Amino acid sequence: MKQHMLPVLCLTSILIIPGCSSGQDTEDAQTKNETRNTVQKESTSEDETFPVEINDASEDSVTIEEEPERIISIIPSNTEIAFALGLEEEIAGVSDHADYPKEAAEKEKIGGLQFNVEKIISLEPDLVLAHASSLQQSKEGLQQIEEAGIDVLVVNEAASFEETYESINMIARATGAKAEAKEIISSMKDDVEHLREQASQIPEEKKKTVWMEIQPPPDLYTTGSGTFQHSMLKLIHAENAAGSEKGWIPYTTEDAVKQNPQVIITTYGQSVDGNPAAQIKNRDGWSNVPAVENGEIYHVNSNLVSRPGPRLAEGAEELAELIYPDVFAE
């Protein structure tokens, strides 16, 4: 049951790139997340039972009367979190793009960004896990679901580890899985701290500049600050070639070459034909780029470095081992 608290003052359009979240890095967003964290911490205790009241990312207060027995997740990141929390049996439906864990692919599909409202209602869920990143285009559909008497929880859009912990905690509170969330977050924090300790061994003069290639030409995109990739590079003491800019940034191939990166990381290998490294090596004007000269062109799974969830620490570790194998490789 939702009780409206604050009006949504404005809705901003965001650029959607396959496999990525928006990653806007604004002080206002951080302040709002910190405020929401404070509210949730004050209202949460180890022995909390249902009903629970949660301030979600739509600026609404969601009251969940009983522990959900049937849950639908309409975005892959929420699905990953729900499975990690041990909610496989409760998951009644997922989006068409849910691909992890493998068991998610076997669940009933409810559509992609344009989810099927009638299908969702027919599955008789107690709770629908929505997401702030798609709130603008899904607002009408979510309203129809609420009018059918189904609780809708809009999970925050995360662009950092801390915001991901918030997402995990929010879903856990709504589903009665707080103990599992505590264990997951503790493990992630341990992994992040271990990477930070290892990275401290890297002297400043050995710091590498990295070009993160999110999408290849003709519509070349990279990632700036306010994104998971940027925070991961910073964590492992690497320099983001586009770190002075924010969000997802279009580049010309000429301007990309000027960044003169020592390492190139691509995140789209599973969605294009051919070998990204070979394609980069064959680009006009790229032969003298240090990363190309030294053969330091690597691919990582986009979901590991852009999808908010328990595998983010694994993504940061993979980046670390590729960029600084002498420091991080086992």
SSE series: EHEEEHEHEHEHHEEHEEHEHHEHHH
Rg, alpha carbons:
21 Å
CATH architecture heading of the largest domain: 3-Layer(aba) Sandwich
Indicate the low-confidence ranges by residue numbers: 1-45
Task: Work out the helix count.
Answer: 13
Q: Report the portion of residues in β strands.
A: 15-25%
The overall number of domains is 2
Number of strands: 13
Shape: globular
Estimated helix fraction: 25-40%
Distance between the termini: 49 Å
CATH topology of the largest domain: Rossmann fold
Kindly state the mean pLDDT as a whole number? Answer: 87
Main sheet, how many strands, which sense, barrel? 6 strands, mixed
Task: Map the helices and strands.
Blueprint: E1 2-4, H1 27-42, E2 52-55, E3 60-64, E4 71-73, H2 76-84, E5 91-94, H3 117-122, E6 127-131, H4 135-147, E7 151-155, H5 161-175, H6 178-199, E8 209-215, E9 221-223, H7 228-235, E10 239-240, E11 248-250, H8 253-258, E12 263-266, H9 276-281, H10 290-293, E13 297-299, H11 302-306, H12 312-323, H13 325-328
Parallel strand pairs: 4-5, 4-6, 6-7, 8-10, 8-12, 12-13
Antiparallel strand pairs: 1-3, 2-3, 8-9, 9-11
Care to describe what's here?
By secondary structure, the chain is α/β, with parallel strands linked by helices. The protein contains 13 helices and 13 strands. It has helices spanning 27-42, 76-84, 117-122, 135-147, 161-175, 178-199, 228-235, 253-258, 276-281, 290-293, 302-306, 312-323, 325-328, and strands at residues 2-4, 52-55, 60-64, 71-73, 91-94, 127-131, 151-155, 209-215, 221-223, 239-240, 248-250, 263-266, 297-299. The strands form three sheets. Strands 8, 9, 10, 11, 12 and 13 form a six-stranded mixed beta sheet that branches. A four-stranded parallel beta sheet has the order 5-4-6-7, sandwiched between helices. Strands 1-3-2 form a three-stranded antiparallel beta sheet. Strand 8 (209-215) and strand 9 (221-223) form a beta hairpin. Residues 1-45 have low confidence and may be disordered.
